[in-house]
Amino acid sequence: MAFEGLADRLQGTMQKIRGKGKVNEADVKEMMRDVRLALLEADVNFKVVKDFVKRVNERAVGQEVLKSLTPGQQVIKVVKEELTELMGGEQSKIAASSRPPTVIMMVGLQGAGKTTTTGKLANLLRKKYNRKPVLVAADIYRPAAIKQLETLGNQLSMPVFSLGDQVSPVEIARQAIEKAKEEHNDYVLIDTAGRLHVDENLMGELKNIKELTKPDEIFLVVDAMTGQDAVNVAQSFNEQLGLTGVVLTKLDGDTRGGAALSIRAVTDTPIKFVGMGEKLDAIEAFHPERMASRILGMGDVLTLIEKAQANVDEEKAKELEKKMRTATFTFDDFLDQLGQVRNMGPLDDIIKMLPGANKIKGIDNMSIDEKQIGHVEAIIRSMNKHEKENPEIINAGRRKRIAKGSGTSIQEVNRLLKQFDEMKKMMKQVTNMQKGKKKGGMKF
Ligand code: GDP
């Protein structure tokens, strides 16, 4: 996971100060020495660290903080706010032109993930914002680039505009926008050429495309794993082109986080999206506050809820809620639930978003035993319809058969039946309490 080292260090430091009844200037100073080192080790730009420490210091030794009832927590609050500010404060949204199509130029060095990100972004625009994007193949130099974009387009069932590699990128962009207007595509995503290094020819060409298309956004795609290099690349592109946003890729890797924490401060360009994997849905809008919260071990419940909303079928959820209320929840419903949770991604990633999860001993090395969940699924599948709906009929003989059929043990079957029974009892209790509450008979 990205930020792991930084998160560990900062959380350790915060832990020391959290419970203190009294905090004095020397405590803050000591804490900030640790914070400074942690940030430098995470490869955050030197000047950024210096300014950050100065700001936190100024705010944290203020009278209202140190004299408050919970000075330790107040100091942590200041650190979190400043960390959020460092990454841009508010979430920075994607432009939507009042005169469509909205034109987005995707720029970046080779290998940063530009072409993949172009596909991911188009996918997100369609899925989350109901847009109708078109991809434009304007990298005519890298031999496989056009083909790569066409393959992505195919995978996504999304149109790709291409004129081969003999027409100039500026002309390709021009015609693509014309066509988009005719076809009512409301977003045009131009995949421009990359180079191994920033060079003048490349910048010249990008400037020409910019001049002609007057893009609403110019997104630089950079690889988070390259740390300070990513910051330098962002700086040069910004000076020459004027970026409107950065997409930081490969945040699923074990980057130390320096790029994410420095880019905004050094280039004054917001990070708008982050890439979290190779798959076409592995892109997230960047929320500075949520990221700060994750780094400080306070969890990221909002992202978790969004993931749930994106993956859970609303109709099914309503039906389920009713079943829970009436305590008619069966093993089939349970199976369904498991499937939906699994759609949200690897379980250990999900659990790490919960507040305080970092305090669970050994969570970093823990991989949730997906095998065990597989067992639960197998057990349920080995029940017949009657058993799934009336688990109380599952006697010793049936248990034996189910264990055998699912390749598990009788103990595992017993455990699951017991858990399910307890769950149902709990649902009944909650339902009864709510009924009581409605009548005004019960107070919480
Ligand atoms: P381009 O040269 O900048 O267009 O780069 P590509 O889009 O071809 O991507 C280069 C490599 O990085 C490919 O193998 C991608 O699958 C991979 N990649 C892109 N984004 C991510 C990401 O967010 N996470 C991971 N793990 N890999 C990524």
From TrEMBL:
Enzyme class name: hydrolase
Cell location: Cytoplasm
Gene3D superfamilies in the cross-refs: P-loop containing nucleotide triphosphate hydrolases (3.40.50.300), Signal recognition particle SRP54, nucleotide-binding domain (1.20.120.140), Signal recognition particle, SRP54 subunit, M-domain (1.10.260.30)
Keyword flag Hydrolase: yes
Alphabetized UniProt keyword annotations: Cytoplasm, GTP-binding, Hydrolase, Nucleotide-binding, Ribonucleoprotein, RNA-binding, Signal recognition particle
Record-linked InterPro entries: AAA+_ATPase (IPR003593), P-loop_NTPase (IPR027417), Signal_recog_part_SRP54_M_sf (IPR036891), Signal_recog_particl_SRP54_hlx (IPR013822), Signal_recog_particle_SRP54_M (IPR004125), SRP (IPR004780), SRP54 (IPR022941), SRP54_GTPase_dom (IPR000897)
GO MF entry, a single one: GTPase activity
Principal subcellular localisation of the protein: cytoplasm
EC number: 3.6.5.4
Domain of life: Bacteria
SUPFAM superfamilies: P-loop containing nucleoside triphosphate hydrolases, Signal peptide-binding domain
SMART domains, A to Z: AAA, SRP54, SRP54_N
A cellular component annotation (GO) from this entry: signal recognition particle
Family membership: Belongs to the GTP-binding SRP family. SRP54 subfamily.
Protein name: Signal recognition particle protein
Organism this protein belongs to: Peribacillus cavernae
Name of the coding gene: ffh
